[in-house]
Amino acid sequence: MTIKVVRGNPTPEELAAALAVVRARAAAAAAAPPGALASRDSWSDPSRIAAHRLPQPGPAAWGRTYWPG
């Protein structure tokens, strides 16, 4: 694996920290069983919003399409 810095001038400590993160992610991906789906963070899951009741038609319905309740 080759990592190339294309912009900036990182310190050795910054480069070591970035490399540690990349290696940890690669090790976690290698340890996962084949065919396992990557888990999504709950904040980025669109079903979080869609799980609530749908807004009823009416003059203010557009304002309730994103904010549940």
N-end to C-end Cα span: 49 Å
Topology order in helix (H) and strand (E) letters:
HH
Q: Which regions are unreliable across 5 or more consecutive residues at pLDDT < 50? A: none
The gross shape turns out to be: elongated
| Amount of beta strand | under 5%
What share of the residues lie within helices?
25-40%
Class of secondary structure makeup: mainly alpha
Q: What's the rounded overall pLDDT mean?
A: 76
Largest sheet: none
Number of helices: 2
Give the number of DSSP strands. Answer: 0
Radius of gyration: 21 Å
Explain what you see.
Helices cover 35% and strands 0% of the residues. By secondary structure, it is an all-alpha fold.
Describe the secondary-structure layout.
Blueprint: H1 12-31, H2 47-50
What descriptors fit this protein?
mainly alpha, 69 residues, single chain
Summarize the structure.
With 69 residues, the chain is mainly alpha-helical. The chain has helices at residues 12-31, 47-50.
